[in-house]
Write a structure and sequence with these properties.
The complex is a heterodimer of chains A (about 250) and B (about 210).
Chain A: H1 3-14, H2 20-32, H3 34-51, H4 61-70, H5 76-87, H6 90-99, H7 108-125, E1 132-133, H8 137-143, E2 163-172, E3 175-184, E4 187-194, E5 205-209, E6 212-219, E7 222-228, H9 232-248
Antiparallel strand pairs in A: 1-2, 2-3, 3-4, 4-7, 5-6, 6-7
Helix pairs in contact in A: 1-2, 1-3, 2-3, 5-6
Chain B: H1 3-9, H2 32-46, H3 50-61, H4 64-80, H5 90-109, H6 122-133, H7 149-157, H8 161-171, H9 177-184, H10 188-212
Helix pairs in contact in B: 1-4, 3-4, 3-5, 4-5, 5-9, 6-10, 8-10, 9-10
Chain lengths: ~250, ~210
């Protein structure tokens, strides 16, 4: 490998795009070549600097309205349902919960994952991402008191690159779930915390459905599901950092 | 004539290469229920990516009003051709459509220097060849200071088209190299060399901004 090639390939290495064989070759070259090592360090530094702040643009409400004009809006029932849901009415929430059975799939696990994705999509579409909007874990956690029969672990991971933006009540498999909402650049992560959703591993396990990445695991008797359109590496990073922080902090 | 009508009327090249499969199915008249079901399926598949589409449009066109029109036109075309979408990841498909819309807008503006409609990017390739051909000084190891999002967005917006595009697709839209190659219609090797160049340019601009501020 020439230095010219390596100076391009270090970017692919920093992006995790090289296969193991090429990665080793590039790493071996970098270990002996200060110039290429500097290029790799610079690539990583630029990536790191870009991650420090969200660089996406918020979608204007006028654009959403125009697209509603382009694509026929959902059937009236659904629209009314979403509106009611946004208002947090308990009746509509129950309707929403019962509706999940309409899209029954084979097996309870599929249903749970499907519910989590539906709830994630609703949170993005119905303009109802959070009921409590705060990046402070000490504001978000108490908000769930009296609203749900469990104490969800609310952990601020802003320093680790996942910004806590708030919390919300939702339903998974017909059961109330605490939704804790994080943002990574322009990607939203909904972390659902519920009870009695069945067995799951104690470390986050990745699966994919409808193009979304999902992490599922159990911790302290609680069921956790993280759903996002974030790429799998970073969602796994989220799972690892969340569990590490949860285990480091005393419960409660 | 609004910018959106302009974009809509500039039909040519409505879909990314390889997206024109099963075109004949779009001619089938749908009943009301089918149409609603189709609309609902499209909304669920495509709306979650609106943030990515709008963000890329903002970076490519550098103007909120044009970006909004381009994103709207993208969703219009995507919905019209939704029947030709055969599974796989939706995001690259939408971003490829958006890019075509934006290229039509570039052409209208007459500002199409780097990315020619025939797909050859001679200026960009030449620039990257020059960079790697000469013994470019290796970057000093300094850490970049933090700027607010607006400053970084401005620095990215100042990159030349071909470099800005791959940088945004990678670092902000989160696409793999393979998907970027598909969206931009370039070989993966070109994507890699442009990304390397884009980061080098951005780093230079970043350091210049630090000195200036």
């Amino acid at each position: 490998m020439t230095c010219e090639e390596v100076r391009v390939l270090v970017h692919a290495l920093a992006d995790g795009e090289l296969d193991a064989g090429h990665a080793r070759e590039v790493e071996a070259h970098v270990a002996q070549c200060p110039a290429c090592a500097a290029e790799l360090a610079a690539a990583r530094e630029v990536k790191h600097a870009l991650r420090a702040q969200p660089l996406g643009f918020d979608v204007p409400a006028t654009l959403r309205a125009k697209i509603d004009g382009v694509v026929p809006a959902p059937v009236p029932n659904r629209r009314a349902l979403l509106k009611g849901f946004a208002l947090g009415g308990i009746t509509s929430a129950l309707v929403a919960a019962s509706l999940t059975f309409v899209v029954l799939r084979d097996g309870r696990d599929d249903r749970i994952l499907g519910d989590a994705i539906s709830a994630h999509l609703r949170s993005l579409q119905a303009d109802h991402l959070t009921d409590v909007l705060s990046s402070n874990q000490h504001t978000v956690k108490p908000w769930f008191n009296g609203r749900i029969d469990l104490a969800p672990p609310v952990i601020d991971l802003t320093a680790q690159g996942f910004t806590l933006i708030g919390g919300r009540l939702d339903y998974i498999d017909g059961k109330p779930a605490a939704a804790i909402v994080y943002r990574r650049r322009i990607h939203v992560i909904n972390l659902f915390v519920a009870q009695d959703l069945g067995p799951a591993p104690s470390t986050p396990a990745l699966s994919m459905m409808q193009g979304f990445n999902i992490l599922r695991w159990n911790e302290n008797g609680l069921n956790l599901l993280a759903v996002s359109d974030l790429n799998r590496e970073e969602l796994e990073e989220f799972g690892a950092k969340f569990t590490a922080a949860a285990r480091a902090a005393p419960p409660g | 004539m609004t910018a959106h009508q302009r974009m809509a009327s500039r039909g040519g090249d409505p879909l990314p290469r390889g997206a024109m499969r099963a075109q004949e199915t779009t001619g089938v008249a749908l009943t009301g229920d089918d149409e609603r079901g189709r609309a609902q399926r499209f909304r669920e598949a495509a709306l979650p990516h609106l943030g990515d589409v709008y963000t890329l449009a903002r970076y490519l066109l550098r103007n909120p009003a044009d970006a909004e029109d381009a994103a709207q036109e993208c969703y219009l075309r995507a919905y019209r051709h939704f029947d030709t979408f055969r599974g796989g990841p939706m995001k690259p498909w939408l971003l490829a459509i958006l890019r075509n819309v934006c290229r039509a807008e570039y052409a209208r503006r007459g500002a199409l220097a780097a990315v020619q409609a025939d797909g050859s990017d001679d200026a960009a390739d030449e620039a990257s060849e020059n960079l790697w051909g000469e013994a470019s000084p290796s970057p000093e190891t300094v850490s970049l200071s933090r700027f607010d999002a607006e400053t970084v967005q401005r620095l990215i917006a100042q990159l030349p088209d071909a470099f800005r595009e791959v940088l945004v697709l990678r670092e902000i839209n989160d696409l793999s190299y393979r998907d970027i190659a598909e969206v931009t219609g370039s070989p993966v090797g070109t994507v890699m060399s442009r990304l390397a160049r884009a980061r080098a340019l951005l780093r230079d601009a970043w350091l210049a901004e630090e000195k200036g501020s």
